[in-house]
Amino acid sequence: MSSPPSLATSTQSKTTARKKVNFKMLRDFFRRIHIRTLVLREESGQTMAEYGVVLSVITIAAVAAFLALGGKINDVVTAVTNVLKTG
After folding, report:
1. pTM of the predicted model, to two decimals?
2. Phi and psi at residue 2, in whole multiples of 5°?
């Protein structure tokens, strides 16, 4: 038994409509993902904050090293200066 032509045409048009809807849904989904990745890529403010944190950690480490080795560095600089004056 074959189905009436109107039913077959109706089924085909429903299938085509579903494919169009599915395609539109997928297209919209991937557009949203693309927009979100573009928004997340913009890291200018975050990058500046990271540079600030790294700079402050390096500064604290340098100050701590100079305070801990202050006397020894002075002795070494004096010894090198004496060698340069005599040599």
Report:
1. 0.38
2. -105, 150
